[in-house]
Amino acid sequence: MTSPRSTPSERFDRNVQRRSAQVLKQRVLEQQRTEFEKALAWAAEQDAIERAAALIVSARRRYLIGHGKSLSYASMLAVDLSAGLSGVHLVDGASARPLDVLSDIRQGDLLIAVSMSRYRRETVDVASAYARRGGDLVLITDADDTPLSAHATAGIVIGAESASYANSPTSVVLALHLLATLTIASSKGAGRRLRDRDDLAAELGLYTGDTDET
């Protein structure tokens, strides 16, 4: 699955400008319906998510990186993975810094890079350096010929076409949800970790009521 590479302003001029709210809403809804159906078909036919999940489960330390909008995707995946796995770290420049990660790559380490068009340089530079130093790289992206494609041990290529000025998150979120689900389902200690977290959340009074948040 691939998507055309264009800028937000170009998509605004092409898709949004001079359209009524009703026409624009209908167009976006129709495009999202089509995109979601394509994403479901792609996920059912391809084994890229299963291969990536197997790498994540077998890793000892798991780092996730992304910049710009991709940081939001990386953060969401990190939260979902850390619910059932230990050793999950978001490389955000605060809790985990790129220099620290690159200077301490060990056997069993894995970097998961979320890199969507227009491919932020920070992510490309860190992830490519990580791969050159012998680390395994799982790439989540939106085309087959991205700057990081040649460096990836495994890759998930997601369509992100949009009828709006912003690339659609629908297919990306679906793929990340499937990736987290398959990874946690394959982890032997995930059930115990999830139960322990539930007990701790109740002990600390983190939530006002029943919730799916982690």
UniProtKB/TrEMBL annotation:
One of its GO terms (biological process) is carbohydrate derivative metabolic process. Keywords: DNA-binding. It comes from the Bacteria. Residues 52-195 form the SIS domain. Pfam families: SIS (PF01380). One of its GO terms (molecular function) is DNA binding. Signal peptide: none annotated. InterPro entries: RpiR-like, RpiR-like_SIS, SIS_dom, SIS_dom_sf. This is DNA-binding MurR/RpiR family transcriptional regulator.
